Predict the structure.
Amino acid sequence: MPLSTNILDRLLADDPQSLLERILIAEYLLSNGYLMSELQTLPVQIARNLKTEACQFAALRLSEIEYRDVFQRKIRLPISLN
């Protein structure tokens, strides 16, 4: 799935969003009873499904965080009636 591939590629980058993505992916895996380090020991299909689901979860949460930030900035700006 392209979405998860893009996110996994960015996980290797050294930027704050990458760190947040790793945290969100780890959060998802932990909520399902797994650690990132355990993915290598799982059957390939199960690990692949978990990675895909974790990346989708991270992408959705990042979108939510970004949208919330944009929305909050917009409501803080003075509104002109002209």
